[in-house]
Write a structure and sequence with these properties.
This protein has 419 residues and is α+β, with helices and mostly antiparallel strands. It is built from 14 helices and twelve strands. Helix 10 runs antiparallel to helix 11 and helix 12 packs antiparallel against helix 13. Keywords: DNA damage, DNA repair, SOS mutagenesis, SOS response.
């Protein structure tokens, strides 16, 4: 059997954890620059607010609804996610972290009743030790476990735990007959439309499809989904997470940036963030693409530009990445353009130390990345950085976060105090 643990309304639950007055209120968490809704409390969902709704459309009704908004606090969410995942791993035979708020677990062997008791204890353990609510679904495959977890979320009578084999006879048949095919894990967009063109509109119809025909028409991934819906575990729990194939750091600016040098400074910051993520993953990059673009929604001329850089030596050090990014992009930018987005994409990733430096390659700058990481871990993120970015002065590309909650668990100056 496989269990899927999902933290309920993760971002919203993290906000309410340290601000109990938010419990029971309609709450939305907004994307970068306080643009669109990326998380909702149950009360906000009841108002009909959807994922992706822009805040400017909700603002007029916010006071009448009692709607509360918060800016995304990614440092808080990442820290609480790590706490939850480490805790869950201690109570299972195996774990695959699927996303920031979901993971698959291998429950202990036992009867249905014993596995349900294990899940209820696990749910209580997370609530007691971290303070976040979770839902747990248990089934013979990942795809079925996902359906069971969604059922646990939507039916309060389940107490947040659903075991596939504990449901009444005919329950899953009836449910899958009613659920649209887009409710299946990984089915959306064009794929859903292609399935609907074949007459497959519900989960039950996909389950009953010929897996071989689905493979010929689509791919082995969709064939595995059909097998999973029929209870065959075609997607095993992977204890080892696959190495990332690329790392992207980009941002939309709150206001247009006209000066190429300022856009270059923004890309320099993004390159430093990319280098930090590379070191965290124990990887180096041999190739990067830097880019900047204007907005197609603003009046005036448009300009989308990118540059590709092959690094002489694969690296995760900030100095060569920053230098390469700026040198490649800035000369291609035009004065007077309203740039609204920029970023860096690192590819050709390899484990650090796996790529030997060939003789005759130019000497590389002294490694300082780990030193910067150590200082920032001890004194707080952003304490030490290259060039102007270490001056703590506001930047034109900084996120607009008017309602950012404190970083309660990652910043000494923002710890919750008790009087």
């Amino acid at each position: 059997m496989i269990a899927l643990v999902d933290v309920n309304n993760f971002y919203a639950s993290c906000e309410a954890l340290f601000e109990p007055s938010l419990v029971g209120k309609p709450l939305v968490v907004l994307s970068n620059n306080d643009g669109c809704v990326v998380a909702r409390s149950p009360e906000a969902k009841a108002l009909g607010i959807k994922m992706g709704d822009p805040w400017f459309q909700l603002r007029a009704d916010a006071q009448r609804w009692g709607l509360v908004k918060r800016s995304s606090n990614y440092q808080l969410y990442a820290d609480l996610s790590e706490r939850v995942m480490l805790l869950l791993a201690r109570h299972a035979l195996g774990q695959e972290v699927y996303s920031i708020d979901e993971c698959f677990l291998l429950p202990p062997e036992g009867t249905v009743a014993e596995q349900v008791r294990w899940a209820r204890r696990l749910k209580a353990t997370v609530a007691r030790n971290v303070g976040l609510p979770v839902s747990i679904g248990i089934a013979s495959s990942k795809t079925r476990a996902k359906i069971a977890t969604e059922t646990a979320k939507k039916l309060p009578a389940t107490g947040g735990v659903v075991h596939w084999d504990q449901a009444p006879d005919g329950y899953w048949e009836k449910l899958m007959d009613q659920l649209p095919v887009t409710e299946v894990w990984g089915i959306a967009g064009r794929l859903a439309k292609r399935l609907e063109a074949m007459g497959i509109e519900t989960v039950a119809q996909l389950r009953d499809a010929d897996p071989v025909a689905i493979r010929h028409r689509f791919s082995v991934v969709q064939m595995r989904t059909v097998l999973e819906l029929n209870g065959f575990p075609a997607l095993p729990v992977e204890d080892e997470v696959a190495t990332k194939q690329q790392i992207l750091v980009s941002r939309s600016f709150p206001d247009p940036i006209w000066d190429p040098e300022i856009v270059g400074s923004a890309v320099a910051e993004f390159a430093q963030r990319a280098s930090r993520r590379l070191r965290k993953e124990g990887e180096v990059t041999g190739h990067c693409t830097v880019f900047a673009s204007t907005s197609p929604h603003r009046p005036g001329p448009t300009h989308n530009v990118s540059a590709h850089v092959r690094l002489a030596v694969p690296t995760n050090e900030p100095t060569p990445l920053v230098a390469a990014a700026r040198a490649a992009l800035v000369p291609k930018l035009l004065h007077g353009m309203q740039y609204m987005r920029a970023g860096i994409l690192c590819t050709d990733l390899a484990p650090d130390g796996a790529v030997p430096v060939l003789p005759g390659v130019l000497e590389q700058p002294a490694p300082i990345g780990e030193l910067i990481d150590a200082v920032n871990r001890r004194f707080g993120a952003g304490t030490l950085a290259l060039g102007r970015l270490g001056a703590h002065s506001p930047t034109p590309w900084a996120n607009r976060q008017a309602d950012l909650s404190p970083r309660y668990t990652t910043d000494w100056d923002e710890l919750r105090t008790v009087s």
